[in-house]
Specification:
InterPro entries: AGPR (IPR050085), AGPR_AS (IPR023013), AGPR_dimerisation_dom (IPR058924), AGPR_type-1 (IPR000706), NAD(P)-bd_dom_sf (IPR036291), Semialdehyde_DH_NAD-bd (IPR000534). This protein is an alpha/beta fold. The chain contains eleven helices and 13 strands.
C-alpha cells in the first residue's frame, strides 16, 4: 500500500469480459484510483479500446502474471467465471493483495452448498475470510476487507428488494420473478443468447434450480427469513438491465404505511438506492450504480409486492465492485460512481 494521498493502483484481471471492461472504464476515470494493469485470457495483446471502443480505455490487455502484476498494486478485481477465479484470488491473497471477486467462488459460506451448485472448490480456506459485497447490508464489514465476494446480479436486486421485509420478520413465503438482458450470460456466444433466438422472444430458464437461489436463500436467512423461496429468471431481448418482481406472502397483515416506513428506514440514507412511487424500469438505471425500488401492500391478497430495477452489468457487477473497492480502500463510497 502506498500513501493515502496518491491514487490506489488497481489490477483488473479478466478485463475482456463485459463486467471486467466496465470495471476498467470506471477505474480509469476514478479520481482516487489508477488502472495499473488489465489482463485477459483470450485477448492478450489487444488494446481494450479496440475490443470495446465505447469504453475508451487506452490500455493494452496483458496475460496475467501474478508475480509481476501483484507487485506494487493496492487491490485487484478478478472478473473470472466460477472455478477459474478461486486459484487467482488465492494467489493474490497469498501476496497480500485485497481482492474483489466477481465469481460465485466466495459468496456461499457453506462449502458443500457451493460444490453442490458449482464445482469442487480449490481454495476453501478463504471462505471464512470473504465478506459478502452488498454494501447496503455489509458496509461496516467491507471497510478494510481483504477479500470481497461481489454478489450476483439477481441476488443484488432481490436482496435489496426483500431486505426491509425480511428484517421485519414478514416473509412467510416469497416468489421472485426476475427478468434480465443477455449480457448477464457473459461474452461467450451460445444458442440461448443467439440473436435469432432472443429477438422478439421471452422465456424462463433455470426452472429446475438457478445457481443464484442458494445465494439469495443464504442472505435472506442472515436477515431472519428462512421461508421457502421460489426464484425463476427470464431472458429478455435486451442488452443490459434487470427487473425483479417479488411477491411476498406476509406473516402478519401490513398496511401501505407500514411498508413505506420499512423502506424509508432501510434506504433513505443509502446513496445508491432510490425508493419511488411508480414501478421502476431498466432504462431508469442503465449505466448506473443505482437500484430503483417500489414497494406496495396489496390489500386484496394480503401480499407485499416489491419491484427492483438495476443494471445487471453495473450495480449487478462492475460498479458495485468499485463501490466495494472504495469501502475496502478507505475512499469515499460514492467516488467515481456519480
Amino acid at each position: 500500500m502506498r500513501s493515502s494521498g496518491t491514487p490506489k493502483r488497481i489490477l483488473v484481471a479478466g478485463a475482456a469480459g463485459f463486467g471486467g471492461a466496465i470495471t476498467c472504464a470506471l477505474v480509469h476515470r476514478h479520481p482516487g484510483l489508477e488502472l495499473a494493469a488489465a489482463t485477459a485470457r483470450s485477448d492478450a495483446g489487444a488494446r481494450l479500446d479496440e475490443v470495446y471502443p465505447h469504453h475508451r480505455v487506452p490500455v493494452v490487455l496483458e496475460e496475467l502474471d501474478l508475480d509481476r502484476h501483484a507487485d506494487g498494486i493496492d487491490a485487484a478485481v478478478v472478473a473470472y467465471p466460477h472455478g477459474a477465479s478461486a486459484p487467482v484470488v488465492a494467489g493474490l491473497r497469498e501476496r497480500g493483495v485485497p481482492v474483489v471477486d466477481f465469481s460465485a467462488d466466495f459468496r456461499l459460506r457453506d462449502l458443500q452448498t457451493y460444490e453442490r451448485w458449482y464445482v469442487p472448490h480449490v481454495a476453501p480456506q478463504l471462505l471464512e475470510e470473504a465478506v459478502y459485497g452488498l454494501p447496503e447490508l455489509y458496509r461496516d464489514e467491507l471497510r478494510g476487507a481483504g477479500l470481497i465476494a461481489n454478489p450476483g446480479c439477481f441476488p443484488t436486486a432481490a436482496l435489496l428488494a426483500l431486505a426491509p421485509v425480511a428484517r421485519a420478520g414478514l416473509v412467510a413465503d416469497v416468489v421472485i420473478d426476475a427478468k434480465t438482458g443477455v449480457s448477464g450470460a457473459g461474452r461467450g456466444a451460445s444458442w440461448r443468447t443467439h440473436f435469432s433466438r432472443v429477438d422478439e422472444n421471452v422465456d424462463a430458464y433455470g426452472i429446475d434450480g438457478h445457481r443464484h437461489l442458494p445465494e439469495i436463500q443464504q442472505e435472506l436467512g442472515v436477515l431472519g427469513a428462512t421461508a421457502p423461496v421460489t426464484f425463476i429468471p427470464h431472458l429478455l431481448p435486451l442488452d443490459q438491465g434487470e427487473l425483479v418482481s417479488c411477491y411476498v406472502t406476509t406473516s402478519r397483515p401490513v398496511t401501505q404505511a407500514d411498508v413505506d416506513e420499512l423502506f424509508a428506514t432501510a434506504y433513505d440514507a443509502e446513496p445508491f438506492v432510490e425508493v419511488v412511487a411508480t414501478s421502476p424500469g431498466v432504462r431508469d438505471v442503465r449505466d448506473t450504480n443505482y437500484a430503483r425500488l417500489t414497494a406496495r401492500a396489496d390489500e386484496r391478497t394480503g401480499k407485499v409486492l416489491v419491484f427492483c430495477a438495476i443494471d445487471n452489468v453495473y450495480k449487478g457487477a462492475a460498479s458495485q465492485a468499485v463501490q466495494n473497492l472504495n469501502l475496502a480502500l478507505g475512499l469515499p463510497e460514492t467516488a467515481g460512481l456519480r
